[in-house]
Amino acid sequence: MELTESQKQEIEELTSAAYTTKRPTVPAFEEILYKPFPVLDHGFVRVIDYMGDDSAIVQAARVSYGRGTKQTSQDKGLINYLMRHRHTSPFEMCEIKLHVKLPIFVARHWVRHRTASINEYSARYSILDREFYFPKFEDMAAQSTQNHQGRGETLSMAEAEKVFEILKADAAKCYDDYEYMLNENPDGTRKDENRKGLARELARMNLPVSIYTQWYWKTDLHNLFHFLSLRAESHAQKEIRDYANVILDMCRKWVPLATEAFEQHCLGGTHLSRKGLDVVQRMLKGEKVTREDSGLMKGEWNELMAALEIEE
Amino acid sequence: MELTESQKQEIEELTSAAYTTKRPTVPAFEEILYKPFPVLDHGFVRVIDYMGDDSAIVQAARVSYGRGTKQTSQDKGLINYLMRHRHTSPFEMCEIKLHVKLPIFVARHWVRHRTASINEYSARYSILDREFYFPKFEDMAAQSTQNHQGRGETLSMAEAEKVFEILKADAAKCYDDYEYMLNENPDGTRKDENRKGLARELARMNLPVSIYTQWYWKTDLHNLFHFLSLRAESHAQKEIRDYANVILDMCRKWVPLATEAFEQHCLGGTHLSRKGLDVVQRMLKGEKVTREDSGLMKGEWNELMAALEIEE
Amino acid sequence: MELTESQKQEIEELTSAAYTTKRPTVPAFEEILYKPFPVLDHGFVRVIDYMGDDSAIVQAARVSYGRGTKQTSQDKGLINYLMRHRHTSPFEMCEIKLHVKLPIFVARHWVRHRTASINEYSARYSILDREFYFPKFEDMAAQSTQNHQGRGETLSMAEAEKVFEILKADAAKCYDDYEYMLNENPDGTRKDENRKGLARELARMNLPVSIYTQWYWKTDLHNLFHFLSLRAESHAQKEIRDYANVILDMCRKWVPLATEAFEQHCLGGTHLSRKGLDVVQRMLKGEKVTREDSGLMKGEWNELMAALEIEE
Amino acid sequence: MELTESQKQEIEELTSAAYTTKRPTVPAFEEILYKPFPVLDHGFVRVIDYMGDDSAIVQAARVSYGRGTKQTSQDKGLINYLMRHRHTSPFEMCEIKLHVKLPIFVARHWVRHRTASINEYSARYSILDREFYFPKFEDMAAQSTQNHQGRGETLSMAEAEKVFEILKADAAKCYDDYEYMLNENPDGTRKDENRKGLARELARMNLPVSIYTQWYWKTDLHNLFHFLSLRAESHAQKEIRDYANVILDMCRKWVPLATEAFEQHCLGGTHLSRKGLDVVQRMLKGEKVTREDSGLMKGEWNELMAALEIEE
User: Fold this and answer.
1) Which of B50, B174, D51, D202 is 20 to 30 A from A270, alpha carbon to alpha carbon?
2) pLDDT (tens digit, 9 = 90+) per residue, C203-255?
3) Under a CB-based contact definition with an 8 Å cutoff, are residues A13 and B66 in contact?
4) Marked catalytic residue, from C231, C252, C282, C291
5) Among this protein's residues, is C274 annotated catalytic?
């Protein structure tokens, strides 16, 4: 993650500002405002702005004239109740705006979360930087033999090295050719006066999806938690999971009570289906239940036993 | 608009708070934070929180690391360009949260704007106050003879008085019976020990749609402008228009450049259809155009002539 | 539920139509198309149109060129997998359009489901019918003493009768006055030539929220299931639950595999929080767990024991 | 656009099906159902399913029990009125599902339209085909000197040829290496037994954004028109415009009255700002207006003069 001097200076100015406001403010969260948190090799997440705090959730749930109660224990109990009973609307009352730098293939997963606002860096308007994501050797893995859309065994060092060389060489070649086709100096004049440059919106099509893009992303806390529940869990691709985990950590600073309730009731725990619940009820009554008489398919049975920590 | 002493005190506390923040802050808007602005006879709008300012729009449009430029003239030009060319996403980067007290029939229009978050006072959980909307005499009007869904001529004083008496009496009777059916003291005990009270979720069904409810409503600036473009215009029912106009005024304080661009390009002005544009082009070339050779239906022709201020 | 003769005839014509189409068609569902299914005293739900079937879910999940496999067992397994793992997007590929007649207070709950399209009968444009919802005696209940937003004990016959008389009388008075204020014959002329009528948009404000309205409501299967998961469950008000159950029944005819998976994995079963799962794991290992050492609050502990069918 | 034999056969089967339905059916649209319409060099659009027709719009606007009137002239007038006055909700009552094959960089524009459902071919789960978009020579253009995000002058034949060679070679190299890294036969076994293959979700990151992907895309008519109004117009990138124009043509077959109204009132015509309208009003009164006394900025003035076909 490299920032230019002028970007660093801009961020420096922002973090040293001090305005007066009547709005709910979270001092611990203000501490990290604007600061880039590194993710992957060149990516980052920065909090640009936020609205509301734990007490804003309480305030909205009660449609009150003032803020949430001063008694944290009551707020905590109410927030837990709301989360447990899927009263999701009060969580929509907090909003966050992030600046994210991420590879295009990660952006393509991310954008599927529709209840959010996005302003992305435009490759029609501007020239993309020469920055690509290359996995670390320990993250280079073979196709999983169990999971059709996941990773299995890690590659050997020699194999990983070979993959790394390929990714690096192809990215470099594609970017060199991007620059050649653009034929454009930083001031917009042509590098080679004897030929035209290709329009940016066309030249960019030569770039691989490992190249970094950037965007402003704004969403509310309910939808952020939904994003995290899908992207911080084990089925998500490792690269977007890294972003999700950094954001989850930010939430712990921003809205500690809501995040605790979210981790307790959504991220952790498990869902029992009708038949799965029946299995558990019977087991708790002392009955020996087998897959055959559970009515469950193999896949679901295995997932249930794993969740219950029952070894067969 | 009556607030209880404890509500007034809560608001007083909120408006006298002063926190330190690094977030973009709009001093002129902070001035009106939390204060109830009266609408209709008992309603109000209060700004509870906001996120972003004019420069946040510029920042997102440029996906920059810092804030918008310090040069207001450049920001203004860019914001105008974005509005004119329907680049709406940067306007989604500002967010506002309002506390609104409004009659149920107004709430039923309002809620149709789906890209917003709402927490409404629950009549299943709580008891509604005895507050109803009664139009002023000058707002009591007959059905329009031109517009199937609007008002025409104002009622005579005697007619208006009669309507007022009816609305008042029916509201009072319905509320008296609501209280009777609830049979509930403020502390939850029964008024009349010899009979049960009806559940709140059932008793409330006796109340007319003129009764006031309250909610927290949160939306982004793009969707707020869309709301205003539909609800501040002449086809909207007068009662919701009153709310829209109060909110429009708030926007002028919050995001003056964006609001000016919105009034210039969306609220004001007019849309010309393909044929309407053809009529204007021909007229500007000096041609005399009649409805017959315009290809327009009567309704559209009349609207066009009115927009162009051409009297026939 | 009363339909006019002309409405009955229109429905008759629709149900006897037979067009030829290449689109996926569900014969069992075609049988009930357009037919009003009664809900409450005057309400109904009618299926107006639908798009897709179980195999459309499979087709989208596979992004295939043809329809889902002919082998129902494979489709069933895939649909179950998708539901269990929250791969919700393929369920969005089926769409349904309903015509619903419902009391305004039910409509106010319903409209909170935002990912749906609505066209409601306009009381600004048209005159509402004299139809109100009055609960059956067995549905008249006192406020719950446990649940702040629900019903408890049923009223005595005498109490219920009294409530019924009040609701009926107030509704009749409000509607009589609505008609008086409108002063309008069916052909739009005045009843009493000596006074103006009040505009419809104003007169309607005298009507209680028990009056019936109607709308066209269109949503996709994923969002319909979400609606049902919140509105067919025990915390929802009984009146909207009645609608939800009628619609759930329709789904069983329309998309039997998806509905079975939904009932299995979402409607039925239960969610275990992180601590709740820990309790179950410990119990299954033979440990005796008490609320005190579970780390759970009283409310959550009670809900967990109830779900596990453990009596204390 | 190449389809495999088995895909062709699947499509053949679908187009020769004939089911009986009571649902609104558009015979002219049924004709093109399932058939791939080519776009760009390898892309296509296929209609997979639809719901509703012109009369469904009328039916919803009137919340009627039957279909729209049989008199087309009345339906047409109403649809025009709805479009002109932005009564958009009835247009949401029609729904369409498309199967689209498109380059990733086009998909990245497309997905920004959030009110739609998508199921995309997964490059985590499956292997992408060796199909890339290469612009035709006449579409290879230099960066526009006026428009920061568009194309200007066409490249010379020699320059275009050179660009084509680069794009082709880089795509081939990246795909060869993708296959090498995957090390996977069609049956999932390894090509080279002596090394592991890289997981699909990682290998795909080497592919340029010109590669084709596929998805099912489902949206309602209102949102489809919004998509077309932004993507069929001159500021959109040529490649997505090609898709928009094919879809617009499909709409003409599906909902001819609504599409005509859309072309008349939204696609064609122009919006006049408050000041722009003032300029037109003054000109129509015979006044000579210059940019200086119009109050308009240069850019807006030029756009206005162009729209009015006034040469300066």
Assistant:
1) D202
2) 999 999 999 999 999 999 999 999 999 999 989 999 999 999 999 999 999 99
3) yes
4) C231
5) no
